[in-house]
Amino acid sequence: MNLHSFKKEVFVSFVFFVHCILYAQPQAIGQWKDLLGFYACNSITHSSDWSKIFVSNRNSIAIYNTTNGEIETIFNKANGLSDVDIKIIRNHPAQNKILVCYENGNIDIIDYSTQTTQIYNLSDIKNANIIASKKINEITFRNNLAYLACGYGISVLDVNKLEIKESYFIGKNNAYLNIYQIAFDDSLIYAATDSGIIRAPITSVLNDFQNWKKFSANQIPLGTYSGIVNFNGKIYAGYSPYTRNTANYMKDTLYTRDGYGNWSKSFIIPGSSNGTIIKKTYTFNNACIAFIGPFGANAIDKNNNQVFVIGNYSFGNQNIKDIVINYYNNYPSGNPVISYIADDFHGFIKTIWDAAKITIDGTHSKLNSRIKALNGKIVVAPSKIDETGSPNFYLEGVFYYDGEKWNYLRDPNNDTIIDVTDAIIDPNDDTHIFASSWINGIVEYKNNKLFKVYNKSNSGIVNASAVNLPWHLINGITMDPNGNVWVSHPITPSPMSVLKTNGQILNFNLSGFNASFTSRILYDKNNLVWCLLPRGNGILVYNNTTNFSPMSTSNTRYITSAKGNGNLPSDYVWAIAEDKNGYIWIGTSQGVAVIYNPENIFNSGNFDAEQIFITQDGQTQLLLVTEKVTAIVIDGADRKWIGTESSGLFCFSPDGQTQIHHFTSDNSPLLSNNIVDIAYDEKTGDIIVGTDKGIQSYRTNIIGGYETFTNVHAFPNPVKRTHENVYIKGLKDGSIVKITDLAGNLIWEGKSTGGMITWNLYNLYNQKVSDGIYIVYTTTTDASEKVVAKIAVIN
């Protein structure tokens, strides 16, 4: 098997300092932005002079300047990286190139050695026909070569030529062999494996398994070795065959091979006869050897003196995934050792005397279940409960973007809210948030603080006593125009409940409902409450025009796939939205359907859903009929944004018959084709996309219309002729926009959808306009309001 035939390809190139400026600028129209913060990190490395620290949160890499303590830039799939699910990052000590290795074997190389930073992609391993794991466990640099310890063997990457040079399959008969780490001495290459330490002469043919020999049990124990390094002229191997379920737990051992070829037992903690657990082993500046275990990290120098140790932090328990330690042989006496840590619980951490978090803004984790956006604010509920109803026991609280920064709505000392499944922003007060908790009930937040919890003990909300569970099982949540909060209430006698504005809870009981599962809930313009039943039971609709009347056959109805009773494509329903015409768009396991007459549900008229026919590639088919539709949202132009479980994100025209966008992880920065939820913010035009890999935003040119003309202006302004578009913002929906030259000649005209309109810098004859000043005349359809603005077009 040969992996070195693939040629390198330049993925993206740009000037480094320009990128830093661009990253700090507002999100541009048509641009993606990752919203995952660095609250859970998994890998870290440093530049050779320690001026920069590079840290990964699995989807992104942040570059931290140790001189000024600032984040210089962040790389992710939206601005240069080719993939997500980063496994490990390592910096070549001499070449200033970062190897970014992904879980699937894909590799990016960030070359920051000159003023122009470039990112190269090497997909050899990812695309190779290998049935073993393609994960790259660790990287060892030797001269200009990077030796990759992989799940199948060893691959050698030439850091100068940026290509895979060769690969070694060194199990018996050239079989796959899982390699954890690689080390060298003057004559041998060593590999830590699941079955022992193997070695081969450096000058031998390394892709021949017969040249690799295992040290015998008489020399060193057989079994799993988590790591191997060369430190101070000796080979150190971490023997780690034990787990928590064995009597030998905490008895991993460090073995040392001296220059004479003799192995001897050492201890990770000096002066201790006890072992620990060795997860990773590193050396730094050839001055100390460091170990990561489940209880922290420590390091010893060449004289076996402990020079660094860290366990739990003052702010919580550690879960160290990776570490770099800035320690030298001539370290001034009494000075603290500085380390930088990638921690899976607390993110990016710096230690001097004490540990301190380095905060990089974003969502607290990649988790997301439901997303809502309003007036530039975003709330994210992180716990997704599947149809089995099994809790996750997440203590993640609510992620809330206040327009400037992300907030983590959870007090780690006092807040015991578990499994927040949905959340909404009060349209009358965007600092006021309601959330649903699978365990605790209805949760109310004010000004970023937990305000009140409504549960069985203080409000009469029903719990899951019917199935002998002490939990409240609140799933979906929404708010009606009067400020009453409605929630779906699965596996109880009450499919839904409402928290009235007076603070009282009203439960709507329905006979025979105890075993049913409810998820999303929608309150529409007709005062109908739609409650999805995703276990194949369709939709439950309650008519609230009777003002909180008890559920009965006259005001409650099941919508199913039966003709005359909804005619849904499938009874497995996952998504629902109401468009600007009051039509109800429904996402099922077999595509999309629309109920055009929801008002007929309770007046004996026809309300059957209709599927939409769409023509693609010369063929007519039903809209997304082969897809499980997981989310639907309507933007300011009444376009339909539809998320699927496996095919990414779609945008369709208002009638659903024309595809405008189809974003996938292959053709765009989209993190994953598995879309969990979508939200639309009419203030910014952002589509907020939640995937199983994290949350992103995509900025559209569609914003909500203003109630009156508000600061009508064009941007960018001035605009270069080479620019694709200029945008005129601050309009009422449906505004008439005319653009003339200074002589009054009509150049272009259009009608706004929402609060903004796009001009492509072409005239009515489809010709690019000349340099000059252009006048923008805007008026409402009834000419009751008029505003004039100017645009400067330049070379």
Which sheet architecture does the biggest sheet show?
5 strands, antiparallel
Please tell me how large the radius of gyration is: 30 Å
Content-based structural category: mainly beta
Q: Count the strands? A: 67
What gross morphology would you assign?
globular
Work out the oligomeric state of the chains in this entry.
single chain
The portion of residues assigned to helices is: under 10%
* Number of helical stretches of at least 4 residues: 3
- Unreliable spans are 1-25
Mean pLDDT: 90
List the strand order in the largest sheet.
Answer: 1-10-9-8-7
Cα-to-Cα separation, first versus last residue: 55 Å
Beta content: 35-45%
Which structural traits does this protein have?
795 residues, mainly beta, five-stranded antiparallel sheet, five-stranded mixed sheet, 3 helices, 44% strand, globular, disordered N terminus
